Amino acid sequence: MSLMGLRRHADLWLLGSAMLLCCVSPLKAEVKNSEHESHSNSNITGIPIVTFKWEHVETPYLVALWVLVSFLCKLVIEANHHVTNIIPESALLICAGFILGGIIWGADLQQTFKLTPTVFFFYLLPPIILDSGYHMPNKLFFTNLGAILVYAVIGTCWNAASLGLSLWGCHKGGAMGELDIGLLQYLLFGSLIAAVDPVAVLAVFEQVHVNEVLFILVFGESLLNDGVTVVLFNVFDAFVTLGGAQIDAVEIIKGIISFFVVAFGGSLLGFVFGLLMCFLTRCTKNIQIIEPGFIFVVGYLSYLTAEMLSLSAILSCVFCGVCCQKYINANMNENSVKTVKYAMKVFANGSETMIFVFLGISAIDKTIWVWNTGFILLTLLFIFIYRFIGVFIQTWILNRFRLVPLEFIDQLIMGFGGLRGAVAYGLAVMMDENKIKEKNLMVSTTLIVVFFTVIVQGIIMKPLVKWLKVKKATESELTLIEKVQNRVFDHMLVAIEDISGQIGHNYMRDKWKNFEEKWMMWLLMKPSARKKQDHVFNVFHQLNLKDAVEYVSEGESRGSLEFIRNDSAIIDFKKKLGEDIFDTMPDVTADTSFDHGIVLPDRRDPVPSVSLEMHEQTMNGLREMEDLNSHHLLQEHLYKGRKQHRHKFSRNHLTINTDEDEVQEIFQRTMRRRLESFKSAKMGMGPPKIISKHTKKEQQKAPNGMKRNSGDEDFEFSEADSASGYDPSYSYRSGGGIENPAFMADLDPVVPVQIPPWLAEAELYSGAVSPSQRAQARPPLSAGDLRRLAPLRISTRSTDSFMMADIPAAEQRRDSFDLPPPPPPPPSKDGRHQ
Amino acid sequence: MGSSSSSLSHIPDGQQLMGETGFSAAHLLRLHERFELLDKDSRGHLRPEDFEEIRELTENPVGGRIIGAFFPPEKETLDFPSFVRILAHFRPTGKNRSRDRTQPEPANSRTGKLKFAFKLYDQDRDGKISRDELLQVLRAMLGLQVTEEQLQSIAERAIQEADLNSDGAISFDEFKKSLEKVDIEHKMSIRFLK
């Protein structure tokens, strides 16, 4: 199943790229300019067999080529890991842009392609913003929202004002010679370059893995300060137009009001669109195939609508993503969620790549470069210094209120992380040349600032983080106990706040959670999705999935699933086939002493209805095990032919599903039968004994099965414990096989086909079996061998291991299945057979 | 209420409590106010019933256990110093880490906080979280969303994750170890108590 998922992902990736092309395509309309000559109007004298119509496809073709080229740049860059370890990818992409720009320049002797504000703001930026909103770690974000807002609002204002005023001061002092820039224009310049850029910050910080609080502070700031930037930019732009004389208190107050309107209006709009999105996904049950499309379209609309209403588009898009993520993830089908996540990354990553490459290309243009040493160097200096000053002052204030104060080192990194990026460049290009005489100087300065911060600071960041020993993100392994405990902590803090009578942070969060559970979920979530909204349970579910995947892949790597029960480690697979079956066998559920639940994914109903549980108690597990094997075999051999014939194209359904259904059906049918016999067996023998021998050695190696490599190297199929994340608690009795070499299946050739459960159990306890030795001793199998061996296999199936190849034979006899001649033994994976 | 406790002198052993718990005078005054508010009949001590008056607390899945944590076994009342000492577990550690080693470990140290959390589970106070004890907490928290069977699975698995000596229960050391990576300072501190 995971393979299919992978394949689907690959498809998606292609699809995503294709869609990316489509949506970028209109944007280059302005790129193709005067060079667009028409020379195809030659007279047609006959029916041409092949015509070359370049003009016909020119624009989309160029767009596609550019996308391809920038992706290729990334491909080349990422192929050299030793380089990307030192120089961040974003810097390298910019350099690649330089080279490409140079080539264009060499060919055309003019700049024919550059990053325009329209392309950037309408097509390249939204995917990145939506992605950051959608993947925002919500809890972390909202816990630190206060600090983020302080940095984003006050910090940005401070940056803008200090830079503008200082530059103006230096200008007055004569540091940069003759320049036609007034105070307001300096402030305008300051405001456009004040904002820390989300794209650049993310690109650099993703690679250094600083601790999550530091990350969310820098990243959150870079996202939210857009509201401020847009307002500042617009206000000063208006002021510049008005001219200094006409600005009075009213205008200034209007500017301040407009800040709140733009910022909060944008956020609110995003929230509304987020709700809309949740609603939509609530009803998309019947059109699951385009379900993911809604997310992108609505997210993009939230951006455009905000832009239309001249609100902060970035804020709108961020909040849209932040608000809806929880609900749409719950509402949508699991595959759709994966699709959204993956496609989101494709778009965002692709856009990011293109932005950096195009930034580099745009720089290779003689016409925009105006050099003024004083202006440029002073700007760089002030940006750097004021960023640090701002961060230190704000953090000093914030630390008085923070539960866990930010350390000095963290502040240094925050200051250093003040990277400027394409947003600043886009704004600079948008300036009106008629109003601002020195536009080109400002644009080139902006470019230099961007390049300096992204390349130089980006390169230094990594060694700096290492050198300062900044607390890194702990790569925490998902453990259930931790999740449970975290939940307890949350409840505990709320309780303590209640007791001490304070309306604090936790109190508010608890209230919000209650409100959310009561109203928001009811409103926005499918009824079926609401049930599985428990985080602890989800973690449990995920862990089980992981185990199951490891289990199966381990089995595959060993050629069969038999490794899992080399001796008396008995596994009982139980399958709940919906409530009906479940009800008929209450005894099973009652004494499930549980070891392990595997919850199969990919079922329609959200509460996993297929739950395979293993215990260590009865022998019946073996048969279930066989079922699993046979199921696997059937999938391999029985249905393959049919599947090939059935391949059909459908836009609405993925063909994969049909195949899966077949397999599912067989699986269920056999399982149902097994369960019935299982039930009767249990009735017959009363409550099963529980093996409680836990071998300590294995227990201690828990829970990470990957690490415990087989303790007994002399085993061929040694040890389930080495296999997977399998719970150590069912006893392996490792070495049992070796200790009982006498117990070879061949020694008791004739055993009734249907072993009475009680007998079988006794037999089981009587001695553990060595599968591996048999496996070692076994001659290479052939079809004939299989037939010959079949009775033996059946006879010992309760205790012995079996090769995958054995089962069809066994199945054949037992169930008189009309099987094709026994397949050759599974070839490749299990070298030992050959 | 505010007027009745306008100065530290009202509070019995005020200075000593400050030294012991690290609370400031302002904190103590605030907590004392709260204490008196909870103590409706002005008896000078609290009983479990007083806590149960707090509506939110009764809705809290671990509320009962928290109340239990305030009352040591066989003790029905809680005086102000004990009240403060319990709450001291939740004081952020902050910067004043420069305590000398001879002093007993303060309640708000990592171990102190964890001990408090551990006791919430360990209701029979045998120094171990058994499967049943964990199951009870889980049942309270997860409630109806999960079937009993799933609850048991979760409990079992959680125990296995933490259980290093495979005795089927979690001892305090194992508990501490399992939460090694969790930022306890962050998770078990309340801002206003700083």
UniProtKB/TrEMBL annotation, chain A:
Compartments it resides in: Apical cell membrane; Early endosome membrane; Recycling endosome membrane
Alphabetical UniProt keywords: Antiport, Cell membrane, Endosome, Ion transport, Membrane, Phosphoprotein, Signal, Sodium, Sodium transport, Transmembrane, Transmembrane helix, Transport
GO BP annotations listed: regulation of intracellular pH; sodium ion import across plasma membrane
Catalysed reactions, as listed in the record: Na(+)(in) + H(+)(out) = Na(+)(out) + H(+)(in)
Superkingdom classification of source: Eukaryota
Any GO MF annotation of the entry: sodium:proton antiporter activity
Signal sequence region: 1-29
Region (Disordered): 682-728, 792-834
Ranges of compositional bias, category Pro residues: 819-828
Transmembrane regions: 89-107, 113-130, 142-163, 183-205, 214-236, 256-280, 342-364, 370-396, 408-429, 441-461
One GO CC annotation: recycling endosome membrane
A Pfam family annotated for this UniProt entry: Na_H_Exchanger
Membrane topology note: Multi-pass membrane protein
Annotated Cation/H+ exchanger transmembrane domain residues: 68-467
Physiological role: Plasma membrane Na(+)/H(+) antiporter. Exchanges intracellular H(+) ions for extracellular Na(+) in 1:1 stoichiometry, playing a key role in salt and fluid absorption and pH homeostasis. Major apical Na(+)/H(+) exchanger in kidney and intestine playing an important role in renal and intestine Na(+) absorption and blood pressure regulation.
Family: Belongs to the monovalent cation:proton antiporter 1 (CPA1) transporter (TC 2.A.36) family.
PANTHER family documented for this protein: SODIUM/HYDROGEN EXCHANGER, SODIUM_HYDROGEN EXCHANGER 3
Protein name in the entry: Sodium/hydrogen exchanger
Organism the protein comes from: Oryzias melastigma (Marine medaka)
